[in-house]
């Protein structure tokens, strides 16, 4: 415990409050935090904290991906609609050419 108190002072940071030092030591050496809870010191599980952080990071990372995927989907839909229009115009031109060709061949 003494080393934790002096570590922060050696680093140039303000010394850690003694309650925080006790909390850190007890949480590392004991799986039961009843004492800390009874005296009103909030104890957070490092596993819970890291899993929560991990979940939040995944949500933040997923959000831009969803937005990008939505943008790509909208762009793809627009391109598909343009392709359908282009395809229909080509079909109309081919029908006209075939009609002209069939009229030209049956005339002689």
Q: In DSSP terms, counting alpha (H) and pi (I) runs of 4 or more, how many helices?
A: 4
Task: Give the total of beta strands.
Answer: 0
Shape: rod-shaped
Q: Can you give the helix content as a percent range? A: over 70%
- The amount of beta strand, in percent, is under 5%
Largest sheet: none
Explain how this protein is built.
This protein is an all-alpha fold and 108 residues long. The chain contains 4 helices and no strands. The chain is rod-shaped, with a radius of gyration of 36 Å. It starts with a helix and ends with a helix.
What's the short version?
By secondary structure, the protein is mostly helical.
Helices and strands in order:
Elements: H1 2-10, H2 18-29, H3 34-38, H4 46-106
List keywords for this structure.
single chain; 108 residues; mainly alpha; rod-shaped
């Amino acid at each position: 415990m003494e080393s934790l108190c002096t570590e922060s002072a050696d680093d140039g940071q303000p010394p850690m409050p003694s309650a925080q030092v006790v909390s850190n030591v007890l949480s590392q050496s004991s799986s039961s935090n009843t004492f800390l809870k009874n005296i009103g010191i909030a104890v957070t599980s490092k596993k819970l904290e890291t899993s929560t952080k991990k979940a939040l990071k995944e949500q933040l990372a997923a959000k831009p991906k969803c937005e990008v995927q939505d943008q790509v989907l909208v762009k793809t839909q627009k391109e598909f609609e343009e392709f359908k229009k282009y395809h229909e115009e080509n079909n109309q031109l081919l029908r006209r050419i075939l009609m002209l060709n069939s009229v030209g061949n049956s005339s002689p």
